[in-house]
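Box S2. Input/output pair 1.
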Amino acid sequence: MDRKPRRLIALKLDPAIVLLQMTTAEFREIALTLPDAVERSHLSHADFRAGERGRIFATLGYPDNAFGVLILTPDQQAEALRGHPEAFVVVKGAWGRRGSTQVFLPAARRAVIESVMKLAWQNATARKPARKARATPRYNVGLKPNAQVTCK
């Protein structure tokens, strides 16, 4: 069952929420007020990038104009969903399991989005530790498993 129609019906029934609904322009404004944030395009919709490496912290317009996406950690995502289940939805698949979170703009409040988007921006600008080199190679090129090697 698709969750969007249920939410739209709930918004029509609650005038207080309808008056406070966020727009795409407000989402964009919040993203671009963060330091070193720039807007670009990614897969035919707007994305917002941060830091010297230009890592994406938010996107807008996926799957349609009523949604944005924030790139959170799984722990941050769980907290956002617990606190505001009407505004946040886990993105389907592996991206969602890694923390990508849809924002249903009509149900989102500005103060909440400012706070959660700042977390996403901090995630994008944080330096990740360098990967350790592998002690052993992943595979032996040209050798079959359990093959006998003979030298002449």
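Box S3. Input/output pair 2.
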Amino acid sequence: MASNALQERLIYKLFDYICDNNPDLLFQLEEERGVTPYLHEKIASIDAVLKAHATEPEYILEERCMLALTQDLRPSKYNYIREVLEEEFSATYRLLIEAGTLKYEAVNLIVFCQELFDAMHFSETKEQSKLLYYAIAGAISEYFDKSLAAEEGKLSWHTTAAKN
């Protein structure tokens, strides 16, 4: 059986992985107050891996476990959105970084693009698809167009209200 120290390291590594690659999941879990139960359930789910490879050096076992723990978290929609933003909307990407809202807006974009990700069966094998890339870029453009239109509508309303 794996040591408690290894299990604790795996919990911390999994949490760090989710923070860096799946903040949409983290926000959802935080909203539901389910971060700790989720992490412990994930660790419990790899008990067979821990037992089957208990004789391996701990660093190899740790790597094997992290691959198993993150299998359903890959590929990262967050990293994919960030990549498309940086490549296709570089000025907006820089503004979001400067404003400190990149993570927040990327998570909003994941939600906005979720149906598209599902329809195109986003996976590690389809991650390099140009069709997927351009479809997501188009959706991001639509998202920002709607956001801009909403902001202009607010400004228009405020300007009209101020005149009256």
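Caption for Box S3: Residues 77-163 form one domain. Residues 156 and 162 are 10 Å apart (CA to CA).
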